[in-house]
Design a protein that fits this description.
mainly alpha, two-stranded antiparallel sheet, 7 helices, 2 strands
Length: 251
């Protein structure tokens, strides 16, 4: 079934949300993590917040995917595996590796849930229904380049998460300057990894829903990376002066 007008409207909505998110986050720091503050309503434990935010991306994608006519085709199955690899980790592994008793506003988690419902639905719908991926797509340069970017981004993301987890010893709290790995060059290699990863997804799927997700990812994470970089520089007088926020030697 070709993409309907309603489907295209949802994809356009995600692109518009990317623009709005970028503008909003340049004006207001999202109130969770190191920027947690009052005035945003009731809060929940950060572990629960991450689970509630990210699990719809894994579960809804799988549900919508299995409803598609191409659900058993090889290329959609490969794309499904890549998506689920990321989100099963992000929803069901990452939250339980967080240290400390931080909390998150319910309002922030709720906005993320809404986005993930939209994003997972439009991408899964394309992959298993509206898109057309013959077996030869697995050898197409666009898919191969996208798969490499996806893998590199995921590896960078996981490595950065591991470095952050190891900063605090048992019973320790507070923040330290992360060092080693990609932190030698940028303050937020975890965010850079996600942007690279979903840019790879956009290339591998060669579809507007994938582009919409990549655009939104950058719109969400670039402002936060800039905020983190400024925060580090203000808090630590010995912060490496040559380290950039997100892109080595550039940004």
């Amino acid at each position: 079934m070709p993409a309907s007008g309603l489907y295209r409207a949802f994809v356009s909505l995600e692109l518009a949300l990317g623009v709005a998110t970028f503008v909003g986050l340049r004006l207001i720091r999202a109130p969770y993590g190191r920027y947690a503050r009052g005035g945003w309503g009731p809060t929940i434990p950060a572990r629960l917040g991450w689970l509630l935010m990210e699990s719809p991306a894994a579960l809804v994608f799988a549900i919508v995917y299995v409803l598609g006519d191409h659900r058993a085709d090889p290329v959609p199955l490969v794309l499904l595996a890549g998506w689920e690899l990321h989100y099963l980790y992000r929803a069901f592994v990452y939250p339980w590796r967080l240290r400390g008793g931080t909390r998150m506003p319910v309002s922030v988690a709720s906005m993320a849930v809404v986005f993930n419902l939209l994003n997972a639905s439009i991408n899964a719908r394309w992959v298993s229904q509206a898109g057309r991926y013959p077996l030869g797509w697995l050898a197409d340069p666009r898919f191969l380049a996208g798969a490499v970017l996806f893998g590199v981004g995921l590896a960078l993301n996981l490595s950065a998460d591991r470095t952050l987890r190891r900063l605090r010893g048992p019973g320790e709290s507070g923040y330290k300057v992360p060092r080693g790995g990609a932190y030698r060059w940028v303050s937020c290699p975890n965010y850079l990894g996600e942007i690279v990863e979903w840019s790879g997804w956009a290339l591998a799927t060669w579809a507007l829903p994938g582009v919409a997700f990549a655009v939104y990812t950058a719109a969400n994470l670039v402002p936060r990376a800039l905020d983190h970089h400024d925060w580090y520089r203000q808090r630590f007088v010995d912060y490496p002066p040559t380290r950039r926020a997100l892109i080595p030697y550039v940004l």
